[in-house]
Amino acid sequence: MPRLSRDTWAQIRAEREAGLSFGLLASRYGIDKAAIVRRAKAEGWGDGTDAAEMVRRKAMAQVTGTAITDPEKRAAAIDTAAELAADVIRRHQAEAEQVRELLWRGLEAHRAAETLDDKRLAFETLKAAKISSETLTNLQRMERVSHGLDDATGKTEIVIERSYGVMEPGANGAGELL
Hints:
This protein is mainly α.
């Protein structure tokens, strides 16, 4: 049985995770089917049922440069991608702080308002804070997904833990004690 290179094994894995059978891979690469099965099991390969997830991961690897096989270049690419992600997170934090400041300015102005016009002006500031918050949430969510910081489902799961158990949403949306 021929000894396969790291790149060939990577290709075999990619083809397996795209849905090719062990038998087909064994005949294509001239190796024992059991050798592929053992390696797949040891490395936790997918079987093609999660092809969409594999495409997403492979695309992110290409975008971030982590598909590079040279260890030093790969490490540098990972560091660069991590720094870009950190920059996005820092900018999101600064943007959120600006919206928070706008909200507090509106609340302070509303408390200090003595005339109806002052109250209306403060209310407009509060509306601007709400609109800014909602718009910023949408923009940041899209950016976090496009940078691979979050997944695209957009679903947030809230689990409330209490001393007597965990509440999870039931079929009708109401919480059920587990």
